[in-house]
Design goal:
CATH class of the domain at 88-234: Mainly Beta
Strand content: 25-35%
Strand order of the largest sheet: 16-15-3-2-1-20-18-17
Number of strands: 33
CATH topology of the domain at 88-234: Jelly Rolls
Largest sheet: 8 strands, parallel
Shape: globular
CATH superfamily of the domain at 88-234: Galactose-binding domain-like
Helix content: 10-25%
CATH architecture of the domain at 88-234: Sandwich
Distance between the termini: 12 Å
Length: 664
Amino acid sequence: MSKNALALFFFLIGALRAQEFPLGIWFTGNQSALDSVSAMGCTWVQAYCGWDSTDSRKHYEFILKNKHGLKVIALIESHLQNPSFAQRLVYEAEQPADSTGVENYFARLTQTTGASSGKYWPASARKHAPGYLAKDPRPNDLFLYNRREWLATFILKISPSGNADAPVARLEIASGETLLAQKEVLEKDFAGSKPAALALRFTLPANYNSAAFDLRVWWHGRVEAYLDAVVLEDFVEEAERPYLSGAHQLFRGVRDAEIVATAKRFVSAKEYPLVQRFYLKDEPEHNGHQAFRYVDQLLLQHARIEGAANGRGRTITATPNYTHGTPHPEASFERFLREARPHELLVDAYPIHADIPADTAYVPRAEAARAGLAPFASHFAYNTKLQGTFDYMIANSLLPAARVAQRHKTPWWFIAQVHGELCEATGQYRRGDNNGPMLRPPSPEEIRAMVYLALAHGAKGIFYFAYSTFSDANFGGCSPARFPGLIALDGNSKLPPDPRAIPQHASDYDTFAGRTVFTGYRKKYEGVRALNAELRRLGALLLPLQWQASFSAHRQHEKPLRPEFDLFAVTSTSFQNERDEASATFIEAGIFRQRAAFYYLIVNRRCEAGGARTVTLSFQGREQKAYVITNLWDGTQQRFSSPTHSYHVVLHPGEAALLRRAEE
């Protein structure tokens, strides 16, 4: 056996022994529905598992202890998820203005005094005139969930003057010209030069305008002072609904006992081996990062869940990119990983909307018109929309996630869109208030392309949203909106689910308010099942590989392939032997490495009927050596005696191939 063949043999053996590649789906449903998810090839479910321990034991044991061995991300509402709705923002006094739009800082646009020094913003009577040490916090629009009671904690220290009654500062909370709360602080409020936490509680007005909110520190110019930070926390105190308590209660340990007690039900890996993660607040804003971390670390340190070193019992949540479309697309993920410190970064990006035409091979033209989809004019027009949308998803979700996760040495998982957003009143995938596009059901080829694009950017797990069709009473100007998933709307969307419901995915249509609408259930379900069969083989091969870079062939003129990866050109040809223009070579190349070998995940981004392509990869080795390329999907090998060589692979719409290239 050659050296190269031996290395490949050990790689494949190692991949087979590797940790299972996560293939999951957001699930609501009964036992029959869970059987259907297992038959579809998923290995994980992300599911609502009860209000509390009693409810989960009564109604959701069939998920928590499912007979299929599906691993579970459990959403247990009252004592695990609800605490993570707590809102906490810390404004460091020395933080400079932030152009990324995610860091907390004081704009200090007017009437400021003092100067930044280390971790403080100090002011001295010898150097500075009386004035504001801090003014105008940014961002100031993250007071959510209609919670109006808040607490501001000002962290200050002084150099005592010896006059206990000397005025130090006035703490202020304002909404426009209206003072919501204020407090005069004297020297005697401090214990010498030790930092003091000075609390000021306030109520936001009912007509609260975030742009008008201000918290300020007026320094009187008498006692040398050092402002450290101001902490804002929501303050919810309801005896009848303690599960709604805010950050003030959470960070002072009020919820600790019930959080730990609920999680401890799942301590034993023998009794609950399938419970892997707890799902917290979905898509948290920046004000929820610290609450996420608090709950996660509380469980890690005090619940003592078996297998925590491998992530069992840790918390997780989907994280969109709140800085997409800005000059700083990595900033949002960067802050989440820095502050929340999750075990995995779980990223959702849903790109397929109603202004992207659906290929008539997927949605018949008349049905597309009835559903409010943009008319399908040509493959060129379709790709103009679709590929631009994929480019945006890559630049604003996949690539930022890959880079930030790599910096933090944190695996990232991708949630792929399999649903649409339908306005029931019109039966269309368009908003009810302005007719703007909402999401449409993606085709199997589009789902496949989304998934492989994520894998080409180093994703180490794939999830789908969502299995059951569900509804929202008020979404997109629609009352209600429906979200067609992989099965028809039935009792499986209820909580708890109707045990008599039979999941239906035999048709591509559903009826809402008397209108029959294209939903793609059958085609999507079968497409995901076929894709999962591929991923159960391919995922194990991808897990040990280290992501290096990704390139879009049609944008090589903007971002050339880097020479250190040996791949210097990618072209594509139709089955009619027509070579695509450079700007229409819709091929993605994800580049990975393990030891001395390079791996290339090549993705055909075309999703239209007739979009199959022969892809030619041109390599330029740096040394005069022979190379072997192995297609890890079918096991075929090709030897090249020259360092400059080309390799051809056929890819159908949305398909990918994983290639290994190594010196012989």
